Amino acid sequence: MTDQIRIVVSDLDGTLLPSMGEVSTRNYECLQQLKESGITRVIATGRTLYSAMAVLPEDFPIDYLIFSSGAGIMDWKSKDLIYSQQIEADEVLELSKILVDHEIDFMILDPIPNNHQFWYYKTGNKNSDFDRRLNLYKQFSTPVGNIQDTKRDACQILAILPNKEAWFEELKTKFDNIKIIRATSPLDHESIWMEIFPLHISKGHGCEWLCQRLKINASDSFVIGNDYNDIDLLEWGKHSYVVDNAPLELKDKYQVTESVIKDGFAIAVEKVLSECSVKNNA
Predict the structure, then answer these.
(1) Cα-flanking dihedrals φ and ψ of residue 102, to 5°?
(2) 3 state SS of 250
(3) How many Å separate Cα 35 from the centre of its chain?
(4) Mean of the pLDDT values across residues 145-171?
(5) Which of 25, 136, 172, 274 sits at a 20 to 30 Å CA gap from 166?
(6) What number is the average pLDDT over the span 147-157?
(7) Is the pLDDT of residue 282 over 60?
């Protein structure tokens, strides 16, 4: 079976979209050219739908948006929601009790598509990154008054921790039968965001679900990311790349392209498409 690329999946922040910047002309044109080649274009982001729509124009050249780390999928052209998952209220309550017992600041995001709205629990300990996110979305937030307030359906729970990997790993062991995803804060680029989802949720699973729907094999995929929350995606894809601004441990494991500010996405896509074309013509 010859190599071919039928689907291209990119993370957004730090991969396609620079911090405080815009998608470069070269990367934008690369996405447009993929359509002309009949290749499905997907963004897979940890952002909520609300947050992703705030930075992506309605006519942005993609076919599907996987958001909230795989908890939801939108058909970009029609803006129809084609997939969504949630954690049930009883389980959210039990998870919240664990976080409260360990004095962790966290947010309970409402079910999709309203997961920009959330309830929050704050310990009172210093947590600048938590405060920053709270201030950004203050109009959508409600404080937890007592533990029963946490008994509610949720897209996910977001716990914001200091950049102490050992603490994150230890806390992770307190949870069973739930998906824990580590992400680097997009706000201070340092704090650890512990994202808690239903067990089967990840960017990689979202891609697998979409590919089954589209009758595309994972072996026909190109994927690219820049952070720990892209690992499931990178493991799922056939041709997996990280940009040069990714953490060293990811660059040691996956193929590396130029950084987000040096058109790393377009360079990697063009390289893989060229290699596949050469193989197919050999």
Answers:
(1) -100, 10
(2) helix
(3) 23
(4) 96
(5) 136
(6) 97
(7) no
Q: Which two tokens stand for residue 134?
A: 């709270």
List the one residue out of 80, 69, 19, 90 whose CA is nearest residue 245: 19
CA distance 239 to 237: 6
Rounded average pLDDT over 201-211? 98
Give the residue carrying structure tokens 């705030």: 54
Q: How many helices (H) and strands (E) does the chain have?
A: 9, 14
Structural domains in the chain? 7-84+201-281 (3.40.50.1000), 89-197 (3.30.1240.10)
| Segment 87-128, tens digit of pLDDT | 999 999 999 999 999 999 999 999 999 999 999 999 999 999
Over residues 7-28, the pLDDT tens digits come to 999 999 999 999 888 999 999 9
